[in-house]
Structures are given as C-alpha cells and as structure tokens.
C-alpha cells in the first residue's frame, strides 16, 4: 500500500492515522511537511484492538531542512485493525 500526494494540505490538524487492513510485517510512513518550521512536539502511537496504546519512541525520527521537516515512523508486526497514528505540532 502506498500513498503519494503532491500539493496536499495539513492546516489545523497535523496528524496521519492509518488502520491496518491485514497483518503487516513492516510499516514505514514518511511525511515531508514544507514550511512548518521547528516542531514543538511529535508523537507516534500504535493503538491495539483492545484499546490499549503503545508509544513508538525508538523508531520515530524527524529532521529539519530550513523551514521544512521530514518525519518517519516505522512499526513492525502489526495485526488487522491496529492503528498507527502520527501527530506533530508547530
């Protein structure tokens, strides 16, 4: 599964939420947000079918290039209906 968007707009709500449709061995999501400047916070969470949540810490990276930021989150061994959510703040 791959999404490629050019000209997309994150304005008020800065997040990406992906529900896993099937067992997923390795999931990587990268967002390049142009013109956002420095981030105040960035968090990635895996939501389990039972409602529990796990924070992704070691596999969440972000890097700045002038006023742009690139954020990458990687999660392994996901089950159907698990959710990966990435949120970032200016």
Question: How would you concisely characterize the structure shown here?
Answer:
This protein is mainly beta and 90 residues long.
Describe the structure in your own words:
The chain is mainly β and 90 residues long. The chain is 0% helix and 56% strand. It is built from no helices and seven strands. A hairpin with a 5-residue loop joins strand 3 and strand 4 (53-56). The N and C termini lie far apart (29 Å).
Which stretches are low in confidence, meaning pLDDT under 50 for 5 or more residues running? Answer: none
Structural class: mainly beta
Output the radius of gyration.
13 Å
Q: Please state roughly what percent of the residues sit in beta strands, choosing from under 5%, 5-15%, 15-25%, 25-35%, 35-45% or over 45%.
A: over 45%
What is the spatial order of strands in the main beta sheet?
1-7-3-4
| String of helices and strands | EEEEEEE
């Amino acid at each position: 599964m791959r999404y490629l968007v050019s000209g997309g707009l994150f304005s008020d709500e800065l997040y990406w939420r992906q529900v896993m449709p099937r067992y997923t061995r390795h999931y990587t999501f990268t967002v390049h947000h142009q013109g956002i400047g420095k981030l105040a916070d960035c968090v990635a969470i895996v939501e389990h079918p039972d409602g529990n949540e796990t924070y992704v810490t070691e596999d969440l990276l972000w890097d700045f290039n002038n006023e742009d930021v690139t954020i990458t989150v990687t999660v392994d061994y996901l089950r159907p209906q698990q959710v990966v959510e990435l949120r970032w703040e200016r």
